[in-house]
Amino acid sequence: MFPTLYAIVDATPAQPIESLVSLAHKLADAGVQVIQLRAKHTPPRQFHEIARALITAVPQNVRIIINDRPDIASIAIAAGVHVGQEDLPVEAARQICPSPQWVGISTHNLEQLRAADHTSADYIAVGPIYPTATKENPDPVVGLELIRVARKLTRKPLVAIGGITIKSAGEVFRAGADSVAVISDLLNAPDPAQRAREYLALAAQATAARGSF
Question: Phi then psi for 35, rounded to 5 degrees?
């Protein structure tokens, strides 16, 4: 079963590695099984150092996914890489990160989703579901309808992303998402680990209810 909470951590050049390691520890202890590491403005050497620190710190059952950079994912021996529409194509990333490493891809419309379904991607991210402030140039909001349509088009795990909060996550799961990717609502919470537990509990309830129909 694909992890129901896909945590995303943003690293900045000035942020101490220790704080990121501590956060990853707390999320892992809360039950989070996949953490994506973003470091869009961090030099490659530092990105690699952060990746290795997180990978070494978390239990083996917690997957650290590297955003954008399959080369760093490979060198750091991460659990996988996530690529966007402007990054390396899935099959090129797969050459660098062969199975059992995961390769995930972001999609923002039906055309991209259909194309992703015909690749070796291990999962497909769909969004932004809601308005988001965590990207400098966000794609147009797609809403829940794209999740509903996507669920009928692919058997690959679907990760919903974009502006998701604990208040909206239930309807995202009910629309057909296997997992919710969360950044701000998780990291800005007074207690990120407790918020993660809330997401995991909500996911269990929503998926159980969906399966009963």
Answer: -130, 120
The verdict on pTM exceeding 0.90 is: yes
Report how far apart, in Å, the C-alpha atoms of 123 and of each of 13, 154, 156, 159, 201 are.
29, 10, 5, 7, 22
133: three-class secondary structure by DSSP: coil
pLDDT at 135 (0 to 100): 65
Q: In the beta sheet, which residues pair with residue 168?
A: none
Domain tally for the chain?
A: 1
Does the pLDDT at position 134 exceed 80? no
Domain span including residue 185: 5-211
Q: Is the pLDDT of residue 210 over 90?
A: no
Give the whole-angstrom CA distance, residue 198 versus residue 32. Answer: 11
CATH code, 159: 3.20.20.70
